[in-house]
Automatic annotation (TrEMBL):
Presence of the UniProt keyword Lyase in the record: yes
EC numbers: 4.2.1.47
Family the UniProt entry places it in: Belongs to the NAD(P)-dependent epimerase/dehydratase family. GDP-mannose 4,6-dehydratase subfamily.
Organism: Cardiocondyla obscurior
Keyword Lyase found: yes
InterPro entries: GDP_Man_deHydtase, NAD(P)-bd_dom, NAD(P)-bd_dom_sf
Protein's name according to its UniProt entry: GDP-mannose 4,6-dehydratase
UniProt-listed PANTHER family: GDP-MANNOSE 4,6 DEHYDRATASE, GDP-MANNOSE 4,6-DEHYDRATASE
Cofactor: NADP(+)
C-alpha cells in the first residue's frame, strides 16, 4: 500500500494523485463524518463533504478518466433524518437533520448528476451506521465500549451520554466494506441501501455491552434525570449530560437493503450481539494493556 498526500479542499492535490496513479476504482470515504461536530464546524463540513465530492468527480474528468474509473461515494442513512417512512429504502424521501446530512445531500445528487450527465460509473452507497473496534472514539458505540471497559477495570466511574432513546440500524463495518466493493463490480452503476434491517436503541447497546462484563443495568428516572444503575450494587454507572444532545436529532433509522440483497446477494454476517462483543473484546484488551488509551 502506498500513501499519498491530498486534501478534499485542494483540487490540485486531487488531480495530481489521480493523474499519478491512474486508478480503476475510487472509493470516496473522505469526510468530516461526525454529526454533532458538523453543528460546530458547518462550513468546513460543507467544504469537505459536499464541495469535496464535486472536486473529486471533476478531478477524474480533468484527468480524462471519466469513462474508465468506477467511483464509489460514501452516502449515508443520515439523509433520511426525520424519516418519512420506516424502514427506509432507496425511494424514501430525504429529510436531512444536520449540517453533515445537508452536505451529504448535495454529494448524493452530484454523484447522480455526473452519472447521468457524463455517463460515469458512479454509485452512492447509502450505508446505515457501521461500527467496529476501529470506530472513532466520539461515536456512541465506541464511546460506550471504551467506557465500559474502563469501568470494568476500575479506571472510570460513570458513563455520560445524551439521547438514550435514539434508534440505529448498526452493522459491522467489515460486511459494509464488502458491499462497497460489490457495487463497483456490477455491470451498471446504481445507488444502494446497505443495512441489517434491525434497529436498536442506544440504551439496548449499553445494556448488552454491560452484560458482557457481567453487569445488569436497571434504569431509573426520566429524561435528563434518567440513570442506569448496577442492579446488584446500586452503583450509578450511566447518567445523562445535556451537552451530548443534538440541536436536531434523528430519532429512528432502520434500513431495507432488499435491492442490494436481490441484485448482488449481499447480506450482513455479523449479528448485533457479535458486533458488541467484537468491540468489547477489543476495548477490554486495549484498556488492560494501556489504561491511558
Ligand atoms: P450518528 O448516527 O452518525 O449520529 O452516530 P453516533 O454514534 O454519533 O450517534 C448515534 C446516536 O446516539 C445519535 O442519535 C446520538 O444522539 C445518540 N447518542 C446518545 N449519546 C451520545 C453520545 O454521548 N455521543 C454520541 N456520538 N452519540 C450519542
Amino acid at each position: 500500500m502506498k500513501l499519498h498526500y491530498g486534501d478534499m479542499t485542494d483540487s490540485s492535490s486531487l488531480i495530481k494523485v489521480i493523474s499519478a496513479i491512474q486508478p480503476t476504482e475510487i472509493y470516496n470515504l473522505a469526510a468530516q463524518s461526525h454529526v454533532m461536530v458538523s453543528f460546530e464546524v458547518s462550513e468546513y463540513t460543507a467544504e469537505v463533504d459536499a464541495v469535496g465530492t464535486v472536486r473529486l468527480l471533476d478531478a477524474i474528468r480533468t484527468c480524462g478518466l471519466e469513462k474508465s474509473v468506477k467511483f464509489y461515494h460514501a452516502s449515508t442513512s443520515e439523509l433520511y433524518g426525520k424519516a418519512k417512512e420506516v424502514p427506509q429504502n432507496e425511494k424514501t424521501p430525504f429529510y436531512p437533520r444536520s449540517p453533515y446530512a445537508c452536505a451529504k445531500l448535495y454529494s448524493f445528487w452530484i454523484v447522480v448528476n455526473y452519472r447521468e450527465a457524463y455517463n460515469m460509473f458512479a454509485c452512492n452507497g447509502i450505508l446505515f451506521n457501521h461500527e467496529s473496534p476501529r470506530r472513532g472514539e466520539n461515536f456512541v458505540t465506541r464511546k460506550v465500549t471504551r467506557s465500559i471497559a474502563k469501568i470494568h477495570l476500575g479506571l472510570q466511574d460513570v458513563l455520560e451520554l445524551g439521547n438514550l432513546d435514539a434508534k440505529r440500524d448498526w452493522g459491522h463495518a467489515k460486511d459494509y466494506v464488502e458491499a462497497m466493493w460489490l457495487m463497483l463490480q456490477q455491470t451498471q452503476p446504481d445507488d444502494y441501501v446497505i443495512a441489517t434491517g434491525e434497529t436498536h436503541t442506544v440504551k439496548e447497546f449499553v445494556e448488552i455491552a454491560f452484560q458482557y462484563v457481567g453487569r445488569t443495568i436497571k434504569w431509573q428516572g426520566e429524561g435528563v434525570n434518567e440513570t442506569g444503575q448496577d442492579a446488584q450494587t446500586g452503583q450509578t454507572l450511566v447518567r445523562i449530560n445535556r451537552k451530548f444532545f443534538r440541536p436536531t436529532e434523528v430519532d429512528v433509522l432502520l434500513g431495507d437493503s432488499s435491492k442490494a440483497r436481490n441484485k448482488f446477494g449481499w447480506k450482513p454476517t455479523v449479528t448485533f450481539k457479535e458486533l458488541v462483543k467484537d468491540m468489547m473484546d477489543s476495548d477490554l484488551e486495549l484498556m488492560s494493556k494501556n489504561p491511558n488509551a
